[in-house]
Write a structure and sequence with these properties.
The complex is a heterodimer of chains A (about 600) and B (about 260).
Chain A: E1 5-14, H1 18-29, E2 34-37, E3 54-55, H2 67-77, H3 84-103, E4 118-119, E5 129-130, H4 136-150, E6 154-156, E7 159-166, E8 172-179, E9 185-195, H5 216-224, E10 228-229, E11 234-241, H6 255-258, E12 262-264, H7 278-281, H8 288-296, H9 310-322, E13 332-335, H10 342-348, H11 350-360, E14 369-378, E15 381-383, E16 396-398, E17 403-404, H12 415-436, H13 446-461, H14 468-482, E18 486-487, H15 489-506, H16 519-543, E19 552-553, E20 566-572, E21 581-587, H17 593-600
Parallel strand pairs in A: 1-2, 1-9, 2-6, 9-16, 15-17, 18-19
Antiparallel strand pairs in A: 3-5, 4-5, 7-8, 8-9, 10-15, 10-20, 11-14, 12-13, 13-14, 20-21
Helix pairs in contact in A: 1-4, 1-12, 2-3, 3-12, 5-16, 10-11, 14-15, 14-16, 15-16
Chain B: E1 3-12, E2 15-24, H1 31-40, E3 61-64, E4 67-70, E5 84-87, E6 94-96, E7 99-100, H2 103-111, H3 129-139, H4 146-150, H5 152-155, H6 167-177, H7 187-192, H8 204-208, H9 215-232, H10 234-247
Parallel strand pairs in B: 1-5
Antiparallel strand pairs in B: 1-2, 3-4, 3-5, 6-7
Helix pairs in contact in B: 3-6, 6-9
The chains are: A alpha/beta (about 600), B alpha+beta (about 260).
Chain lengths: ~600, ~260
């Protein structure tokens, strides 16, 4: 034990994006000793990439808006697979969480009478997204980062966690990790651990996620005895860049459509009018004129179909391209140039303007952008108690993208940033209550620490073996081809068999160089988590024989009543990264009658 | 798909040297694409920092042909023919290869007095767009620290790092000072502890800012004016003295002319 650097905390938070930082503030305010670990530098987490805004029914633009409408929109967007209690708490608490950010330094765009301005996004009945231009994620992370720093919280930057460690009584008691800069190991003991590690999109070829999105928290929770749900529900954001190839997958904010942009195919048609599913017909415009009236006044027309939830739009784009009506690089066209003045576009969407100008040589005030679906977000994640963020593993909590349930089968745009601050705070409080209750863990199981370190060092001892980058590349290709936006049984069976081969390949990696800041080794330690995510996604996708939200089956193209009653929950039998995974049906929480009535209410 | 030669500095705090890699380059690629290709093939242990690859996180700062830039936003086809030289940021200590120890910046950030907001009125704050826009410009900062890297006050004078915050933190202080909700006064702090006077407005920081923030004109110069006005204005001086008795801040320092 004394061989490694060691730290003790009351609450240890893994991940320094919006959820982790908000959790830290809460636990710190309760007077606890809080430590935060991040794989990157502070302020670089994926939250920084969020563009459009955070959804909160403040009613600043449309007074008619309230938490009940937001709850309904979230549940409908999630195709009713949501943990209703999470959706309820989220809709009720988001406004307060947004407002407190102002006291910590956030500066949102304003309405004419000085309130926080709110923007339209897909699936939200009213303009509801508090925002700062198209860089709202940066505003959120910087605000929380500065608050955490001003409170004097310990932050361990560029530290990669390998595994959670239990105490001898089986409670989560901390973790074993290493400093990326030096390659030296470090252990953390904690009375409670909060996972806030974000997403897992890096296992797909075309993704908006950074290198960090390897599903570390998903995997560590699985190995530590928690359950993963809804892993088959992956959001392919409809608008990612498709050209040039080197930027393929980079996000184009939904704010472009919220601010008037429309989708066209190669024939110039606004094809989304042909893809309005029955459940959204009553609230969607039938003509272009009606849709245009809605932008001016939401009571003068119904919303244009470009603003349907993301799963609907992504599938439509996929179909258009397959039918041969795509653009020269396999996408469709997102056009705001012909619909809004150049000055408006530059003011509302400055970073999109910059991104296309610099990386693609496209002036979005003069020409359309070519875009296509990109792997963006995982709705699935660690099963938690809505009120406390507690997982099935005692002492372990989870919040943000790593947690499952809040968004059901599909997340609405803007509900992610608000998810981070609502459930980040709740996780901080839940962990604090657990610590103060006195039932928390005592010490790390030394055998588990030693085993994790031995495993991490094994690739240095092999002189012959595979390059980790080759395995990652092949994994991304395989998942994109077989567990992508449209799925079918034979491909899923193939993927599951392939994933077993990948497991063997990972055991045969040879790492070159030393331990200090060695990206090849860093990637090697990410791959077990990536495989855990891929396996649970493929298993869930194979077992859910229907189409719902971010899970589309070519062989089962519609939603099925039978599958509307449960989540698929995965657990590890053994707790090692290559242990078998077991999957059961976990019934959805029954929705109380008064909330059910909100769902059934007509537009 | 022509090949390109990349001349990359490799080493650690104890020393290093340039290594050449001749590697495939595709149309429209940025420097970071080529670095990643080297990692994936010839040198999996080549250290570089990156996250978003879209100019939003500010992780992949380096010096490309001697100029401080983001690797993810520098297109290969905008660079002159011939080998491309990539070196780590010079101002910060080397960790390995292209990765530097930027902890100086985090230490400076921790010193800055936080926002001290006015009490929230009933119904929440009301702020006009034109009143938040000045600070919003500075909050576009992605903390790539290229302005810090290029600033000669610390680039060429290591000993100034103890008493000089650098452009990134001058815009941070300007942002707080211009926030309509703030009630803190950081004018003495920025002069005495952040070394604002050392900046002689050569605008190098503004030139390298990938976000196009007008660091010198909109933040540093107005901040200098505020500080100078506060120090020479007898009414402001008296006001400070009175306030200090209640706020109990640091003792009055002698007036120091800007260099």
């Amino acid at each position: 034990m004394s061989n490694y650097e060691h730290h003790d905390y009351d609450v240890l938070i893994i991940g320094a994006g919006g959820a982790g930082l908000r959790a830290a503030i809460e636990a710190k305010q309760r007077g606890l000793k809080v430590g935060i670990i991040t794989k990157s530098l502070l302020g670089k987490a994926h939250t920084v990439m969020a563009e459009g805004g955070m959804a909160a029914a403040m009613g600043n633009v449309y007074e008619e808006d309230n938490w009940m409408v937001h709850f309904r929109d979230t549940m409908r967007g999630g195709k009713y697979l949501n943990n209703y209690r999470m959706a309820e708490l989220h809709a009720k608490e988001a406004p307060e969480r947004v407002l407190e950010l102002e006291q910590w330094g956030a500066l949102f765009d304003r309405t004419k009478d000085g309130k926080i301005l709110q923007r339209d996004f897909g699936g939200h009945r009213y303009a509801r997204l508090a925002h700062t231009g198209d860089r709202t994620g940066l505003e959120l992370i910087r605000t929380l980062q500065q608050k955490v720093v001003s409170m004097g919280t310990d932050v361990f930057m560029e530290v990669k966690v390998l595994k959670l460690v239990h105490d001898d009584a089986g409670r989560v008691a901390g973790c074993v990790a290493y400093h990326r800069a030096s390659g030296e190991f470090v252990t953390f003991a904690a009375k409670a651990v909060i996972l806030a590690t974000g997403g897992a999109g890096k296992s797909w070829k075309f993704t908006s996620n950074s290198w960090e999105g390897t599903g570390d928290g998903h995997a560590m929770a699985l190995w530590a005895g928690a359950k993963l749900i809804d892993m088959e529900c992956i959001q392919f954001h409809p608008t990612g860049m498709v050209w040039p190839l080197s930027v393929r997958g980079i996000l184009v904010t939904e704010g472009v459509r919220g601010d008037g942009g429309v989708l066209r195919n190669s024939l110039g048609e606004r094809f989304m009018f042909n893809y309005v599913a029955p459940m959204f017909r009553a609230e969607t415009a039938e003509t272009e004129e009606e849709g245009d009236r809605w932008y001016e006044d939401h009571n003068a027309g119904r919303r244009p179909p470009e603003l349907l939830p993301r799963d609907e739009v992504a599938r439509a784009i996929n179909t258009e391209v397959k039918a041969g009506r795509g653009g020269p690089h396999g996408g469709v066209f997102l056009d705001i140039a012909s619909r809004r003045p150049a000055e408006f576009i530059r003011r509302r969407l400055p970073s999109m303007y910059h991104q296309f100008m610099e990386l693609a040589g496209v002036d979005i005030t003069r020409e359309a952008m070519e875009i296509g679906p990109t792997c963006h977000y995982i709705m699935g994640g660690v099963q938690v108690d809505a009120d406390t963020a507690a997982t099935a593993a005692p002492g372990l909590f989870a919040a943000g993208e790593v947690a499952g349930g809040m968004h059901g089968a599909n997340r609405l745009g803007g509900n992610s940033l608000s998810d981070l601050i609502v459930f980040g705070k709740r996780a901080g409080a839940g962990a604090a209550d657990y610590v103060l209750s006195g039932q928390a863990a005592t010490s790390l199981n030394q055998g588990a620490v030693d085993a994790a370190i031995k495993e991490a060092l094994a690739p240095f001892e092999r002189t012959e073996g595979e390059n980790p980058y080759t395995i990652q590349h092949d994994l991304q290709e395989m998942m994109q081809a077989n567990v992508g936006i449209i799925r079918t049984q034979s491909e899923l069976d193939f993927a599951l068999a392939e994933l077993e081969k990948f497991t063997e390949r990972v055991k045969n990696i040879a790492v070159k160089g030393g331990r200090a800041y060695n990206p090849g080794w860093n990637l090697t330690t990410d791959l077990p988590a990536m495989l855990a995510v891929c396996k649970t996604v493929a298993l869930g996708a194979s077992l859910r024989k229907e189409s719902r939200g971010g899970h589309t089956r070519e062989d089962f193209p519609t939603a099925s009543e039978d599958f509307s009653k449960f989540n698929l929950a995965h657990s590890s039998n053994g707790g090692n990264w290559d242990s078998p995974i077991e999957t059961v049906e976990s019934p959805l929480l029954p929705i109380p009658q008064e909330l059910k009535a909100l769902l059934e209410e007509a537009h | 798909m022509a090949d390109v030669t990349m001349r990359i500095w490799r080493g650690d705090a104890s020393g290093g040297e340039f290594q050449n890699y001749t590697i495939e380059q595709n149309d429209n690629e940025v420097v970071l694409d080529v670095i990643h290709r080297i990692q994936a093939t010839e040198a999996p242990d080549l250290a570089c920092r990156w996250n978003c690859k879209a100019g939003k996180c500010g992780s992949c700062s380096a010096e490309i042909n001697g100029k401080p830039r983001l690797m993810c936003m520098t297109r290969m086809d905008t660079l002159p023919e011939g080998p491309v030289t990539v070196t780590p940021m010079k101002t910060f200590p080397i960790i390995r290869d292209l990765v530097t120890d930027v902890s100086f910046n985090y230490a400076m950030a921790a010193k800055i007095p936080a926002l001290l907001p006015k009490p929230v009125p009933e119904g929440g704050y009301r702020l006009m767009q034109e009143d938040v826009e000045r600070s919003q410009e500075f909050r576009k900062c992605i903390e790539c620290f290229l302005c810090q890297d290029v600033c000669h006050v610390i680039r060429d004078h290591e000993d100034n790092k103890t008493n000089y915050a650098g452009p990134r933190f001058f815009i941070r202080i300007a942002e707080l000072e211009m926030n309509p909700l703030d009630t803190n006064d950081r004018r003495e702090f920025v002069r005495e502890e952040m070394g604002l006077g050392y900046c002689n407005i050569t605008k190098c920081c503004t030139e390298v800012c990938p976000e196009g923030i007008h660091i010198t004109d909109n933040a540093i110069i107005p901040l200098k004016e505020r500080v100078v006005a506060a120090n020479y204005d007898p009414v402001a001086w008296l006001g400070r003295k009175i306030r200090r008795q209640t706020k109990k801040t640091s003792a009055e320092a002698s007036v120091q002319p800007a260099p």
